[in-house]
Amino acid sequence: MLPEHRRKGIYTALFYALRDKAQEQGNIFSILSGTHPNNLAAQAAFEAQGRRKEYIMYSYPTRRRPRDMLSTRQCRKAHTGRY
User: Under a CB-based contact definition with an 8 Å cutoff, are residues 63 and 30 in contact?
Assistant: First the structure.
């Protein structure tokens, strides 16, 4: 999310709408979310919403994807022109 849109409750509102829809539908057992291990802000948001950290996931890339060549910061600059 771009910095100017952060901390406005957008993500939280979307999550609660999804949660309510899942509960209304009745056949959804959980909502899984993931983030980078260093993204402490996202982890704090997840926990504030009542989510539990249940899994540690690992991946093994079989080939490089173009995005893997750039850091998150470099990707953001490439897309927005700023950090």
Answer: no
The first and second tokens of residue 49, run together, are: 């919403």
Sign for the CA dihedral angle at 18, 1, 70, 34 comes to negative
Count the neighbouring beta carbons within 10 Å of the beta carbon of residue 28.
12
Tens digits of residue pLDDT in 27-77: 998 998 888 889 998 899 999 999 998 888 888 888 876 665 555 666 556
H runs (alpha helix) in 1-83: 10-25, 40-48, 72-80
| pLDDT of 25 higher than 80 | yes
